[in-house]
Amino acid sequence: MFNFKDLPRSLFLLSLIVIAIGLPSSKFLMSLGQFGVVLAWILKGEYQHSVKNFFTNKTLLVLSSLFLLHLIGLIYTQNFDYGLRDVRVKLPIFILPFFSAPFLPLKRREWFWILHFFVLSVLFVSGIGFYRKFTNPDLPFSPFVSHIRFGLMIDFALFVTLYFLRQKLIYRGLYIAALIILLSALYFLGSLTAFVVLILATITVIIVFPVRYFSLPVKLSLTIGILLLSVGVFYFNYYQPYKEINKEKELPVLTHSPNGEKYYSDLSFSEGFTRENGYYIWQNIAWEELRQSWQKVSNKPFDDSTGNALKFTLVRYMTSKGLNKDASDFKKLSPKDIQAIEKGIANYRLTNMNKLEKRIYQTIWELEVWQKNGNPSGHSLVMRFIYWESAVNVWLKHPFIGVGTGDIYDEVMKWQKENSKLEEGFYKHPHNQYLTMLATFGVVGFVWFLFWIFYPIVTLSKHTLLSIAFSAIVVVSYLNEDTLETQAGVTFVMLFSTLLYSSKKVY
Fold this sequence. Notes:
By secondary structure, the chain is mainly α.
């Protein structure tokens, strides 16, 4: 693959491989690889010809244009420091299309090498995740990048492996093994976003893939089948059992504990309708007895934990077991229960669930609690609704050109603080790339962002499994995540966008 007589091209290809390896594993490798791409461009010389190659390739020109939009957004922003940090994160949007131009298109073998190293890196990081899962399950499965970004990479790695399963019959056993490992990694990762993206990307591939592979009736049947299967699994495996477990159960409302402390009980609408496994949470609570009992078995402060007071976790956990919250029933908790409470687990049923099952269970619970008392704090999915609402309201105040590159964070934080029930530690970015762009650059920038997304997809002369799958993964991920707001996310998008969309050559 490497021709040392052509050092710049060899350095370019090596740099792309370094980036591909670094995507799931190392910010340093991602940065080093991009530095290598720039250095290869410099060593190649022929600058006028290289620049001409870039400007005559409309796809590369469009792909890099989003970086220009962020530079323009600095002109009318107030928080220039944040704006500069954001522009620095977005550098791959310019670096990869511009400095790759004189080296494209890749040869088929070169492209395959990059894909293989990417999959191997995802498998390697998955291996670390498996080791953590079985030795210290409290550690995150993805040690180097966020679990959502890593989930998207697993999704794409699955399609890459399927692609090679069709291409190379001689290695079919290895690719099947890789598929099993990747699916297992996705399962243990427990990212609901990654699972939903995978399902929607699969449906997109079935619908868009050429008719010679699937006739229209087969496409419709497969699409409907996948949707029905997904809904059925969710309903019968998760939603129905949840509703069964959480059927209303009544315990007698008592006035005093067996040891004589007056119970705290609040069955008002605001809190009394919050239940755990069907039992009222805010009923029959002897706070002082709980405090004293807890201090005898744990060094963790009763009134403090990571983000939430531990005493509330304890109350919810005891409620989930149908216990009164007093010294007498506290004795019924096992050492395993105490450890779970110390880790922030608020329902004993969660101790026997894997990450995906926990995430689904907690999501259903979050929606139910939010519907009852309206407080979204600490509830991942529900908080997203507030984040989206904050972005929309910021945009409504600045509809045409938005707030600029540097002010988006300040403005959404301000709205969340003044207009939502979110507690201070939960103020965050919009978690939706479309809404982030809309609030940041207004209607003008948002239209350009949509053009930036879909022009390379629409103008690609011929789609393959990889181009369809990658496009679907990225476009869907923007609905639930600020994919372009982190180094791993933006580098993942730009590396494969540059290589997949910039050439008319079908790999």
